[in-house]
Design goal:
Structural class: alpha+beta
Helix content: 25-40%
Number of strands: 5
Oligomer: single chain
Shape: elongated
Strand order of the largest sheet: 1-5-4-3-2
Largest sheet: 5 strands, mixed
Number of helices: 5
Order of helices and strands: HHEHHEHEEE
Length: 165
Amino acid sequence: MNRNLNQRWQKKYKRLKNKLPHLSNGQWSKIESIVYQKDQLLPATVGINENIEEPVDRKLILKFDYFCEEECNWNKLDLTKINALFRILKRISSTTVRELPNSGIIRKDLKEESKYKSYESLLSKVPPDASLKEIELPDGGRVFCFISEENVFIVSIETIHRHVD
């Protein structure tokens, strides 16, 4: 920031910026323009609630509450695929909520794939507001899951890819 701010405001601004890392520079410029209306600094207490705790960047937690064994396909299961599965599960559980979007773990969101009949049985197993995700395993295998807060609910593990109509 190129304006001469008092130290207290600078600390609060920095904390706010750390709480909202997803905002772009353009969005921060808009926030600054609001704060500096008519080149007058608003009091540092405006819009800041000291009772709000800093968000903790929590690690993802694997859960199997929605696991459907009847949906799993274990054909062509071998040691390579088992090792790959455990590597993926370990990678998921060592990833934080903030890191997940850029981690490359999630191959795609199946919300757009609901038109394919092969995914209907999986989509029917998750809550209506959940978004089913696909994680890739070697040789076409997949892990299907959905995410709620820091919880990754595994729905199905398949060693070969489903036939898509």
